[in-house]
Design goal:
The complex is a heterodimer. Chain A is mainly α. Chain A has a domain at 20-217. Chain A is built from eleven helices and no strands. In chain A, helix 6 (163-173) packs across helix 8 (185-211) and helix 9 packs parallel to helix 11 (264-276). The longest helix of chain A is centred in the first third of the chain and has 44 residues, at 40-83. Chain A starts with a helix and ends in a 13-residue tail after the last helix. Chain B has a two-stranded antiparallel ribbon. The chains are: A mainly alpha, B mainly alpha. At the A-B interface, helix 3, helix 9 and helix 11 of A face helix 5, helix 6, helix 12 and helix 14 of B.
Chain lengths: 289, 316
């Protein structure tokens, strides 16, 4: 029993890491640009499928590096052409636009790669269990955690120690002032969007190796990512990270005791958070609109 | 006042709806499609009570639509309820849920409100999806059908007669729409418009903002769940897709496409959307791309919707 619990907590932690990676990208875009990127799941799926298409040529490791970058470049283009004109408008419009984009991305991946799931193999070296007793501790899972940790570490390093990161953080506080100080806000938002999409693409490649790859992979992961942001607190990236891990573990634990509630439990958590601490775990008061 | 000015449009729409089953076939449709336009039109207009007339963006109305659908379906299947009690049951279930969830989210604003409504919408989707023994799970709730309507002096067979069912739906539609029009024209409705135009000023004038937004949310969900119940009756079936977030998005685009600042706009948007979806999905596998493209095009080139664009030239 304890092994089962451990297994599910561990599993939940990994799933939570996906949620967090995806939610961090969503959060970045939401905080700076006020856009809920509903197409985030579509970009995630695209990252996974790009990797699937690239693996025969550059191998898993090459695909892990290249695919997220390709998706990010696509994201830069989408932001430039479709989303930039909507910044001044009611947030309703950007939400609707990305919602439509999510439809298109999902349908296009289905059109190109088929509606059935495709085999997505991580390297064999990563798939062997490391321990006989704890069969679930495969190299791939540890590797995944390492990559997610590296990505999150990299994100926080960029935000805290580079000029671009400083500008993004300042822009989240007060975009107008940042603009007045001579920063090109258009480019800033563009890069920030691409950065968020990169994280989605990376999450896609990693998730495909663990969960399998089908066109709905993105749609299945986006809702928990919203919950992660709300639980963690709007405006706080650290909160988003915490929220993602927390709901992952919670749904993992629920899978042991009440399997049919493993999805619903995260929404119950969200309800509780909104009831007891409406701004979210690490959200700042007054930044909630 | 805008209600008085729009009288001509009211008459036009009433005439069109009353005669719809008769000209639908002539333009390549069928009675069931006409009924679906009415049902989705009611849902989109109900959403617009909140979106267009209170200025609050809910992206999770499918939850209440679906609760109405499941409530009505279960009442008929398990309680052997008649058609009207079944609708009442669905509406009551959804309204209670909306009252509770509304109280949790009413302090959120803008994108945050939208995000919380999206996320909460999914709870009921997973409930319906997972609770196999009661909801039928992914396969949906089957093995029931709408009951003939006992009027006391006569029985109306809305089960076998498509047109009779259409007119039954039209009566419910008319009652709901008239109630919404009354609410919008009332002093209460005026405070909602005041919140939409300038929340801070409304607050200074003493309008209890949170209470009004909560009420508007619950009223909107009340009517949208009536549409959901009718939708289940229309199909004699309901499944988790009636609760899923894509339906929420579709309702919003219907409202925007028709013109969310006008009373009838969402009905027109629903008509366009339902007809388009019906046509495209029978002609191409890639209908999702077409619908997605409609979203993008409406947002980029047609943000004021059909009625909004028509009114543009006129003095406000």
């Amino acid at each position: 029993m304890s092994q089962l619990v451990l297994f599910n907590v561990f599993n939940g932690l990994i799933v939570g890491a996906f949620y967090a990676l995806m939610a961090l990208g969503l959060s970045l875009i939401l905080n700076l640009s006020g856009v809920i990127n509903f197409a985030h799941g579509g970009f995630l799926a695209l990252g996974a499928y790009f990797a699937y298409a690239l693996i025969p040529f550059v191998g898993f490791w090459g695909a892990l590096v290249v695919a997220p970058v390709l998706v990010a470049v696509l994201g830069l283009g989408v932001e430039r052409v479709l989303i930039r004109p909507l910044y001044g408008a009611d947030p309703l419009y950007s939400l609707l636009l990305t919602f439509g984009l999510a439809y298109i991305l999902e349908d296009m991946t289905r059109f190109v790669w088929g509606a059935q799931s495709v085999p997505f193999q991580a390297p064999a070296i990563l798939m062997t269990p490391l321990s006989g007793d704890y069969f679930f501790l495969t190299g791939y899972r540890l590797f995944m955690i390492a990559i997610v940790a590296a990505a999150v570490g990299g994100l926080f390093a960029v935000l805290n120690y580079t000029r671009l990161g400083t500008r993004i953080r300042a822009g989240v506080r007060d975009l107008e002032t940042v603009s007045t100080l001579g920063v090109n806000v258009r480019i800033l938002r563009n890069l920030n969007f691409g950065f968020g999409i990169y994280l989605a693409g990376l999450a896609g490649v990693l998730a495909a190796g663990l969960l399998g790859l089908s066109p709905t992979i993105g749609a299945n992961l986006i809702m928990p990512s919203f919950v992660a942001i709300i639980v963690g607190g709007l405006g706080s990236l650290l909160g988003t990270l915490l929220g993602g891990l927390l709901i992952g573990v919670a749904s993992g634990l629920a899978a042991v005791y009440v399997p049919s509630a493993s999805e619903a439990v995260i929404y119950v958590m969200m309800g509780l958070v909104l009831l007891v601490r409406p701004r979210g775990l690490l959200g700042e008061e007054g930044r909630v609109h | 006042m805008s209600l008085v000015r729009a009288r001509g449009l009211d008459v036009l729409i009433a005439a069109a709806l009353l005669s719809m089953p008769f000209w639908m076939a002539a333009i390549g449709g069928y009675t069931e499609l006409a009924t679906r336009v009415l049902v989705m039109g009611l849902a989109a207009m109900s959403l617009n009570f909140l979106l267009g007339f209170t200025g609050v963006l809910s992206f999770g109305h499918a939850a209440y639509f679906g609760l109405g659908a499941y409530g009505a379906a279960m009442a008929i299947k398990y309680l052997e309820a008649g058609t009207i009690p079944a609708i009442a049951f669905g509406v009551a279930a959804a309204t209670v849920a909306a009252a509770i969830i509304g109280a949790l989210i009413v302090r959120r604003r803008g994108v945050y409100f939208a995000m919380v409504t999206i996320a909460f919408g999914q709870v009921f989707y997973f409930l319906a999806f997972r609770w196999n023994s009661v909801t039928g799970g992914d396969d949906g709730l089957t093995g029931w059908h709408r009951q003939p309507l006992d009027l006391g002096f006569a029985t109306l067979d809305i089960f076998r007669n498509d047109k009779a069912f259409y007119y039954f739906v039209l009566v419910v539609f008319a009652l709901c729409v008239a109630a919404m029009a009354q609410l919008i024209a009332s002093p209460f409705g005026r405070t909602l418009l005041a919140i939409r135009e300038n929340e801070r000023r409304a607050r200074f004038l003493g309008v209890p903002i949170e209470n009004r937004i909560w009420l508007s949310f619950v009223i909107s969900c009340f009517f949208v769940s009536a549409a959901g119940a009718l939708y289940a009756l229309l199909n004699n079936f309901t499944d988790p897709r009636a609760l899923r977030f894509d339906l929420s998005g579709n309702l919003v685009i219907m409202a925007v496409m028709g013109g969310m600042r006008s009373f009838w706009g969402p009905l027109i948007g629903a008509g366009i959307f339902v007809a388009l979806q019906d046509y495209v999905s029978s002609h191409t596998q890639n209908w999702m791309s077409v619908i997605g493209l409609v979203f993008v095009l409406v947002v980029r080139f047609f943000p004021r919707g059909v009625l909004g664009a028509l009114r543009r030239g006129r003095p406000a």
